[in-house]
Amino acid sequence: MQDTNWSRGLDIEVRGDDVVSHSGSVVTRMLADATGLTNALSDALVRPDVIHDRGRVVCDLAVSIADGATCMSDIVVLGDQQRVFGPVASMSTLWRSLNEIDAKALKNLTAARNRVRRRVWQLIAARHGKIAPVGTCYGDIEGVIAIRIDATLVTSYSDKQCAAGNFKGGYGFHPLTAWCDNTGELLAIIPRTGSAGSNTAADHIAIIDAAIAAVPAKYRRRLLITIDGAGSTHDVLDHITALNARTGFSVEYSVGFDLDARVRNAIALLPEHVWCAALDATGVLLLCARPLLELSQRQPQCHRCRRHLRVLPHVRWLRRRAGRAHARPFRRRRTHHHPGLARRG
User: Fold this and answer.
1) Which residue among 70, 118, 215, 280 sits deepest, i.e. has the most Cβ atoms within 10 Å of its Cβ?
2) Is the CB of residue 208 less than 8 Å from the CB of residue 240?
3) Backbone dihedral region of 240: left (phi > 0), alpha (psi from -120 to 50 degrees) or beta?
4) How many structural domains compose the chain?
């Protein structure tokens, strides 16, 4: 088990000499120790035959990234301050530590993180009485855990393993991530090559299952999963619908999709009284007065699941009605029987 006594005897002084840089990393490192994350990582990567505990090495790498590190060599920022952090692994030790992680070790690391998350959420609930609600411009959604799924592009400036050209003309990686909107933490991530598809159903199903497994069991009963247009595939929505069909569980979703000319023309024929005002992320009426339309009772049932459609109509059509023709982009979102899903921020 990793010794976490390095922080004993540390004091904070406000003075102009003998200062410590990146002192915020001390708090992050202490938090990992206090929650049991460091010891959990050590148990997952146990290597009694080495000097540097592998859990501490991985923890220090995470602390460095949180402090702004962009490459592995940036871990020297901690290593150069042994009076504060104690012994820190060198870059070569860090390389070896990461190279030792195989599929079994990854599984152990995931299990360790999930165990620690369960304890941390217990501490949050004990202090605040609950896990934070999902914030929307229409008000907070209590008792629901929101999982936000999105891919991100990571640029590689040299030829690296699994780096490839992406759909936006860049070069690097295209990982798929899942975040807990209530707490702001990363639940799961799937590393992918830069050429990975944006709407690959198998990857989205895998990240959904991994994210749900990362949520403490007590909080898996009421879930909201949001994905952009990449999630608008039959396989993904059928999978979520099957999860929602389990007794005692509610798994709702909000995904984006393209509004083609047929849909826009149909929306334009709807009467004035069916529209309502649109709000921004803070709950304030949008200055351009773009209205919202609830089509839950105006569209046919889809295959094996009910989908509701809330649409921001084409702004050009709105302005034409006021005699000011002007083309602008429009936004759209499809939701699964859940009111008030405009995302904060």
Assistant:
1) 215
2) yes
3) alpha
4) 1
Query: Could you tell me if residue 55 is inside a domain?
Result: yes
Is residue 114 domain-resident? Answer: yes
Considering the domain boundaries, does residue 106 fall inside one?
yes
Q: Confirm if 178 and 210 have CB atoms less than 8 A apart.
A: yes
DSSP 333: E
Identify whether 43 is part of a domain. yes
Residue range(s) defining the domain that contains residue 96: 1-6+21-129
Backbone torsions φ then ψ of 250, nearest 5 degrees = -130, 110
Residue whose structure tokens are 């936004």: 331
Beta bridge partners of 285: 279
Q: How would you label 168-204 residue by residue, b for 16+ Cβ within 10 Å and e otherwise?
A: eeebbbbbbbbbbbbbeeebbebebebebeebbbebb
Encode the chain (345 residues) as per-residue pLDDT tens digits.
455 666 666 666 666 565 666 777 888 999 999 999 999 999 999 888 888 899 999 999 999 999 888 888 999 988 888 888 888 889 999 999 999 999 999 999 999 999 999 999 999 999 999 999 998 877 888 999 999 999 999 999 888 889 999 989 999 999 999 999 999 999 999 999 999 998 899 999 999 999 999 999 999 999 999 999 899 899 999 999 999 999 999 999 998 877 788 888 888 888 888 777 777 767 777 655 455 555 554 444 443 333 434 444 333 333 344 443 333 333 444 444 444 444 444
At 174, list the tokens. 């295209």
- Rounded to whole angstroms, the Cα distance separating 97 from 100 reads 5
**CB count in 10 Å sphere of residue 230:** 20
Whether residue 190 contacts residue 175, with contact meaning beta carbons closer than 8 Å, is answered with yes
Residue 55 burial by CB count (10 A; 0-12/13-18/19+): exposed, middle or buried? buried
Question: Helical H runs in the chain?
Answer: 24-34, 37-44, 54-66, 76-79, 82-85, 91-99, 103-128, 201-214, 234-244, 261-268, 315-321
pTM beyond cutoff 0.90: no
